[in-house]
Design brief:
By secondary structure, this protein is an alpha/beta fold. The chain has 18 helices and 10 strands.
């Protein structure tokens, strides 16, 4: 929770102008709250019972002004709190996005995207609500309690002490209910997360659901999960209602007792009707404000599970040495140092049987290397290790003679362009999916698209390069997707190009433009099952049972 306190302090510091205005509003509200019961006493005793029209008129005017001032301060207070809330919401979202960039890629395989985002948005909304109206009212309640206590002590110190003693009983009730509410909210968050993960899985697998007629089966699963989720919601709602019932009951008993005692004092002539009315008004203000302050504990019992989960996520594992580091190379040694080097590298997923077992090889600048092997033997894993998406269990991976752990992952990835078998496409325009980050001019984009063959179909689209590709590029055929992915790699002008079944979906004519000719000046490593793509390779390796064997090629430079 220290991290949450730090974020709260930072937001308050950034919004110090709004905080200052809030305190001004709250002080004015407190003063007006203190004045209203006294004005009611004057209206009752001097105006109505004393039959003094002038006193009645002046007291009523001041009372109306006080009421309107409190309402106006409430509007201004809420307006300023919205600004602080938005600052908190934006800060937490930025932290979450930065963390999503830094966490290891393996986490996205353990949990699906919707499950992660659902949890983050729930937690961020919950934490941001600290600066919602409840916070404004809570801060204002402190001043109202102080003002009310001063007013009560002036009228009847004995009854004031008795009132606060009775209110202590409310605190005991809240402690009990807040602990139970925290447990119920934790259970609700877990059930909701499981439900959203299951639902995302069904959406991702909608094709299989249709092909295998799984609707009835999955609908029954939906009903089971939904029943558990709704039971969790119901339990949470019922605890709220039980708490509300106990709270109202205690408040009613307190006010009933005060009416009896106050009425007795008026009957006995020990106080006036106006003083009793002022005392009851003060009591109402104080009990309402204290209730609000006590409710904060119950309110935070709902927030605490989200805070724990959110900051546990922020403190989770990250990719090591992610940021760019400036590295200087000796140009005289450029030809002698391998561009990519594996030194006795072993890797396994989650400590299982090694996918790669003691692999060593070197690739020099400008070399064209192919890696072949059966499906699932770890060819794509090699690329994930080169780009730093995974770290080896043992051994060293070097880029241009430097350990990748020393270089920084952004430095490594800046030197590498990857064309995968299933490239990802954003739901935006063609040009935005080619020039990722919009770093190049239009002429360069068109030029690389002509080289890859993508321009031939892009130019036929209704809006050309500004055509929206839809969710995950669903408007494109397999070959079109690969050509756009190749265009990305060409535009990046990276020193190293990794092709993972890059020509999947290419037709015969398209394959005439070989990757070797497109990337003639770069170091090229490709994974392929197409025999015709092995022509022109400097070296060919076969990956089998975790071992890498050179089956054709020289021994490097």
């Amino acid at each position: 929770m220290d991290a949450l306190k730090y974020d709260l302090k930072q937001v308050i510091f950034i919004c110090k102008r709004q905080v200052l205005l809030l305190f001004v509003c709250i002080i004015i509200e407190g003063c007006m709250t203190y004045a209203q019961p006294l004005l009611l006493t004057k209206i009752t005793d001097q105006g109505i019972l004393g039959k003094n029209l002038t006193a009645l008129l002046s007291a009523v005017l001041f009372f109306v002004a006080a009421k309107v001032s409190v309402a106006g301060m409430g509007v201004l207070r809420s307006y300023e709190f919205v600004k602080i809330h938005n600052q908190m919401f934006g800060r937490l979202n930025e932290k979450a996005f930065a963390k999503l960039y830094r966490i290891p890629i393996s986490m996205y395989k353990e949990k699906n995207g919707m499950q992660i985002l659902q949890a983050l948005q729930t937690d961020i909304q919950s934490l941001s609500s600290i600066f919602d109206e409840i916070a404004a009212l809570s801060v204002g309640a402190v001043f109202q309690v102080i003002a009310g206590a001063v007013g009560l002590s002036v009228i009847s110190p004995q009854m004031t002490i008795l009132l606060f003693a009775m209110i202590a009983a409310k605190f005991i009730i809240v402690v009990f209910f807040s602990q139970r509410k925290k447990e119920v909210v934790k259970e609700n968050l877990l059930m909701n997360n499981q439900f959203m993960a299951w639902l995302e899985e069904q959406i991702s697998g909608i094709r299989e659901m249709k092909l295998w007629n799984l609707y009835t089966f999955q609908n029954n699963e939906l009903k089971k999960l939904q029943k558990k989720l709704l039971q969790s919601y119901q339990k949470s709602a019922m605890w709220d209602q039980k708490y509300s019932f106990c709270e109202v009951s205690v408040d009613t008993l307190i006010m009933g007792f005060l009416y009896l005692l106050g009425g007795y004092l008026v009957i006995m002539g020990k106080t006036t009707a106006g003083s009793l009315l002022a005392f009851i008004t003060y009591c109402s203000n104080i009990t309402g404000s204290i209730t609000l302050l006590i409710d904060v504990r119950y309110y935070f019992a709902r927030i605490k599970p989200s805070a724990e989960r959110f900051y546990e996520f922020l403190n989770g594992k990250e990719e090591k040495a992610i940021f760019s580091k400036k590295v200087c190379y000796n140009e005289n040694d450029k030809e002698l140092i391998p561009v990519i080097e594996f030194c006795d590298v072993t890797f396994s997923y989650h400590g299982q049987k090694p996918v790669l077992d003691g692999i060593s090889f070197q690739i020099y600048q400008g070399e064209k290397v192919a890696i072949i092997g059966n499906n699932g033997v770890g060819k794509s894993t090699l690329f994930d290790l080169i780009t730093g998406l995974y770290q080896p269990d043992q051994g060293i991976i070097k880029i241009k003679g430097r350990d990748i752990r020393e270089l920084g992952l952004e430095t490594i990835r800046g030197k590498i362009a990857v064309v995968s078998q299933n490239p990802f496409f954003y739901n935006t325009s063609v040009i935005d999916n080619i020039d990722l980050g919009r770093r190049n001019n239009m002429e360069d984009v068109v030029q690389v698209c002509r080289l890859s063959g993508a321009d031939s179909f892009i130019s036929q689209m209704e809006e050309g390069y500004e055509t929206m590709l839809g969710n995950r590029g669903l408007k494109l055929s397999g070959g079109e997707r690969q050509k756009i992915a190749v265009s990305r790699a060409l535009l990046k002008k990276a020193e190293i190009v990794l092709l993972d079944e890059a020509t999947t979906g290419y037709d015969v004519d398209s394959r005439k433009h070989t990757m070797e000719s497109l990337f003639s000046k770069q170091t090229l490593v490709k994974v392929t099952h197409q025999e015709e793509e092995l022509r022109g390779m400097d070296s060919i390796y076969r990956l089998h049972r975790g071992k890498l064997e050179r089956i054709r090629g020289g021994e490097g430079k």
